Amino acid sequence: MSFLQPSGTIIDLGVNIDHVATLRNARGTTYPDPIRAALLAEQAGADCITLHLREDRRHIKDADVIALAPQLLTRMNLEAAVTQEMIDFACRIKPADVCLVPEKRTEVTTEGGLDVVTHFKAVQAAVKQLQAEGIRVSLFIDADEAQMNATAEIGAPVIELHTGRYADTEGAEQAAELERIHRGVLYGVSKGLKVNAGHGLHYTNVQAIAAIPEIAELNIGHAIVAHSVFVGWENAVREMKAIMVSTRLGARK
């Protein structure tokens, strides 16, 4: 847990290191090293390290996951598509958490939540296989009651609500999306689910999401990597965690 909140009872930050690997792969070098980024993020207050092993390996590579797993002092949250290749790989690595996500080769980044209703049997099989290895499973979904009902029926204990549409809008549209997410959080909690959130969050839009008291964890990557260009990696992590914690504490008053 973070030095800012050792008990982890305020709000956790999962630092996504994918785009450190993106920078490395852009020139085919060995730097910047995502493993070093993960370990420094832990020192700076990250509560877990998130990374997405995509089917096309556009950023994180198999070797990154294998090398990082035994070195983490917090926990690994491995994002993976619902494919047999990825589920088998996760079962070999045995991260603390696996977050099942939708994946399309043509997308720049994840465009929406996993459709658990449509792909119920495939998701259910993946969840069962992962849980048999002692891995906690979360599903990355939209704030939709049908998707949360399906998640609860499958038996996955955690959801991560997609905040991309909130992050990409402004004004009244953003306010409506925030309200939809808030309702989704409350509904998820009522179904007995731990509720996390993430996607598109940055230093000036994370506050309203962090203020929702029932959200346990936010997973943020691209904004931290981008900000680190100007302030340094550890400072970027510390600043994001400080914003989240101070917002949550302020919301409690």
What does this molecule look like?
This protein is α/β, with parallel strands linked by helices and 253 residues long. It is 47% helix and 16% strand. Strands 1-2-3-4-5-6-7-8 form an 8-stranded parallel beta barrel, surrounded by 7 helices. It has 11 helices and 8 strands. Helix 2 packs across helix 11 and helix 10 (222-231) packs across helix 11 (233-252). The protein has one domain (12-251): Aldolase class I (TIM Barrel, Alpha-Beta Barrel), CATH 3.20.20.
CATH superfamily, please?
Answer: Aldolase class I
**Order of strands, widest sheet:** 1-2-3-4-5-6-7-8
Q: What proportion strand? A: 15-25%
The total domain count is: 1
Q: What structural class should be given to the helix and strand makeup?
A: alpha/beta
Indicate the CATH architecture: Alpha-Beta Barrel
Q: Helix content range of the residues, please? A: 40-55%
Which residue ranges are poorly predicted, with pLDDT under 50 across at least 5 consecutive positions?
A: 1-8
**Ends apart, CA distance between termini:** 23 Å
User: CATH topology, which one?
Assistant: TIM Barrel
Q: Assign the CATH class.
A: Alpha Beta
Principal-axis shape: globular
The biggest beta sheet, please?
8 strands, parallel, barrel
